[in-house]
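Quick one, probably user error.
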């Protein structure tokens, strides 16, 4: 049987992708898209270097004659050639090549070649250098290198961008007086400088984004973001929410909030009272609250959220509290239930791991309105969870949720009442309170959270003892184990945190399972427990409850205990391979101790040698316990990614500005945004159209 037809089919060509489609992959559709597609780096093709002057590691352009070439077969088939100028020779090599390249390398031919210089035994070489005609006119400007996609050449990008620059309307959205006042370049000049920098221009400022041309681009981007956030705030204030105003409280008939405060064994701190007043003021308004409550580990955010929930419940609406992990959500449930049950307030639990019968009962209680406060995980946003009348949404550790998840929970309250005694009002949306134990540095709050109101609990409750932080190299491990044994004998409890659950061939890290086995043997007969993310929720709960009840001396854990776990008797924490953790994560873990009256210690065990970044992180942990200072250092070290978490959900809202480097521009952009919105709404629209390209809708979420 002939196989030719099959062979013919297998050799069929796939349809060629058009140039326009390739541009579209990069988001390049309009002329302004091309103009704002800025270079990653530059190549200097303005000069020819002599071969004797080049050095390994540099990118060089040389010109000369091919003196010999050959195909060698070992260790693999490759094309080699030697290029000579008046000062010396350089080897050229192609690991994959075509017959046309072989013919180009015939002795006697002259070429200009460009590439990265490598040092070899007998001189220098370039691997896969770029060839051009010898003697051709040199470029008079640095050559930009742009972000690209498969099959799209730099030449095609440069041609399209040059055409766009020649035709696009780049009318400046900043007046000459404003540019002069702020010391900013005109926009067209800035873009021309970045796309086609003169040969005499020092490339360092362009590459490091410190040149005045880049300052103008970054300012425009930050201004667009501030304008968009202000528009988002305006749009929210047009929406309607149920006003949840003050509840009458008398000595004979105190409100729910007052009854809870009277039952607490502690008084609110001044900071807690202040932020509660800010939240309650927002709840009283007829447009939805969007407030971020931030406070350091252990600052008392939960009681503030509980009091805000009671204000809402007093008005006959339901409250939903969503936490990122079942461990944290369950701890909230247990704590708040102990506060609310004596008040006659029904608290309901909802999680994915619940038995089917219990889940059905919870869903019915939520639907009927019997459940006044619902605490749970992402299970709250699943289909089939129907609230009777949702008036307030509380999201804990908000940076761990995607924008879509937070929106889904909020929308549970947008459909109006489904059987409540209150009149259904479909246009009403719930108030929203988000909480974070990772404080947001001021620059970040101004840049990414300017559309939210921010409340900060900036003091710890009395009785919280300072935590002593100690650094030890891993070769002191046995000394640490001996210290843990002594602490156990003195009645203290210890956390021992590991970065992995089981052994990994890729990373030589001490893992939780092995550490548990090691400590169980070394510390016998002391009681050791193990908790990690692969345990079932009921198994995790059982282990954690044993630790809380003092039935375990040491808890070996992964970062599942990072947030929310509160065991006042635990006064010692060991963090294994501390150099592998982020700064915010280390601070969160450290906050698990220091919750009782005993002096608490956090030991950071690290593996040498340390990278510079790891060294800076550990130094920050040693030097300060202030969560706001930690957050600022984290921003300086690693940028906004970890602190923002999923707010961006992978979408980079700032392509050019760097918050660690450009924090000073944020405040100026914010002031200019206020002035522009008041004086020139038409220019505001033009500026947003140029820079945001629809991202403002994303910010509003």
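Nope, works fine. Designed sequence:
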């Amino acid at each position: 049987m002939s196989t030719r037809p099959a062979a013919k089919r297998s050799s069929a060509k796939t349809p060629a992708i058009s140039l326009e489609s390739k541009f579209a992959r990069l988001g390049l559709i309009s002329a302004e898209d091309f103009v704002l597609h800025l270079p990653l780096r530059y190549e200097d093709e303005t000069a020819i270097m002599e071969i004797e002057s080049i050095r390994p590691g540099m990118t060089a352009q040389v010109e000369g004659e091919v003196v010999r070439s050959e195909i060698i077969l070992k260790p693999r088939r490759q094309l080699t050639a030697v290029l000579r100028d008046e000062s010396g020779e350089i080897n050229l090599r192609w690991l994959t090549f075509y017959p046309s390249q072989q013919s180009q390398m015939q002795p006697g031919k002259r070429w200009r070649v460009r590439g990265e210089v490598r040092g070899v035994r007998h001189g220098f070489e370039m691997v896969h250098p770029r060839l051009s005609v010898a003697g051709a006119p040199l470029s008079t400007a640095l050559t930009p290198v742009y972000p690209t996609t498969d099959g799209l050449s730099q030449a095609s990008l440069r041609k399209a961008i040059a055409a766009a620059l020649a035709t696009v309307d780049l009318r400046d959205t900043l007046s000459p007086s404003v540019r002069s006042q702020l010391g900013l370049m005109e926009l067209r000049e800035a873009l021309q400088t970045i796309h086609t920098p003169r040969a005499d221009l020092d490339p360092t400022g362009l590459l490091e984004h410190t040149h005045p041309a880049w300052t103008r681009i970054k300012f425009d981007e930050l201004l667009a973001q501030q304008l968009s956030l202000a528009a988002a705030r305006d749009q929210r204030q047009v929406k309607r929410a149920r006003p949840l105003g003050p509840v009458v409280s008398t000595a004979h008939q105190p409100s729910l909030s007052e009854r809870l405060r009277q039952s607490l064994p502690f008084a609110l701190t001044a900071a807690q009272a202040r932020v509660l007043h800010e939240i309650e003021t927002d709840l009283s308004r007829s447009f939805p609250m969007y407030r971020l409550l931030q406070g350091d580990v252990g600052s008392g955010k939960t009681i503030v959220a509980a009091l805000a929930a009671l204000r809402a419940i007093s008005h006959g609406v339901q409250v939903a509290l969503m936490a990122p992990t079942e461990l944290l959500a369950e701890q909230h449930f247990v704590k708040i239930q102990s506060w609310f049950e004596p008040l006659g307030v029904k608290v309901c639990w909802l999680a994915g791991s619940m038995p089917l019968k219990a889940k059905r009962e919870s869903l019915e209680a939520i639907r009927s309105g019997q459940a006044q406060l619902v605490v749970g995980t992402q299970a709250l946003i699943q289909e089939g969870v129907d609230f009777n009348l949702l008036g307030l949404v509380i999201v804990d550790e908000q940076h761990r949720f995607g924008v879509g998840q937070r929106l889904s929970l909020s929308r549970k309250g947008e459909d109006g009442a489904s059987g409540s005694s209150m009149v259904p009002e479909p246009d009403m949306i719930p108030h929203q309170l988000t909480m974070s134990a990772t404080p947001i540095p001021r620059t970040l709050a101004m840049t990414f959270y300017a559309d939210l109101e921010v409340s900060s609990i900036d003091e710890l409750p009395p009785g919280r003892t300072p935590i002593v932080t100690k650094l030890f190299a891993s070769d002191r491990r046995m000394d640490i184990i001996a210290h843990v044994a002594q602490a156990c004998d003195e009645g203290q409890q210890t956390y021992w945190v590991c970065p992995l659950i089981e052994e990994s061939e890729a990373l030589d890290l001490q893992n939780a399972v092995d550490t548990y086995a090691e400590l169980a043997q070394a510390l016998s007969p002391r009681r050791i427990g193990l908790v990690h993310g692969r345990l079932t929720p009921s198994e995790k709960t059982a282990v954690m409850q044993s630790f809380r009840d003092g039935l375990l001396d040491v808890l070996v854990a992964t970062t599942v205990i990072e947030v929310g776990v509160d065991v006042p008797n635990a006064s010692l924490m060991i963090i294994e391979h501390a150099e592998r953790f982020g700064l915010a994560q280390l601070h969160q873990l450290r906050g698990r101790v220091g919750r009782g009256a005993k002096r608490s210690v956090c030991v950071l065990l690290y593996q040498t040698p340390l990278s510079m970044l790891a060294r800076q992180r550990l130094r920050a942990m040693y030097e300060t316990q202030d969560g706001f200072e930690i957050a600022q250092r984290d921003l300086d070290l690693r940028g906004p990614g970890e602190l923002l978490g999923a707010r961006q959900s992978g979408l980079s809202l700032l392509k050019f500005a760097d918050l660690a480097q450009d924090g000073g521009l944020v405040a100026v952009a914010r002031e200019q945004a206020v002035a522009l919105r008041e004086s020139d709404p038409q220019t505001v629209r033009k500026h947003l159209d140029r820079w945001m390209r629809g991202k403002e809708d994303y910010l509003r979420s």
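The two ends are 63 Å apart (CA to CA).
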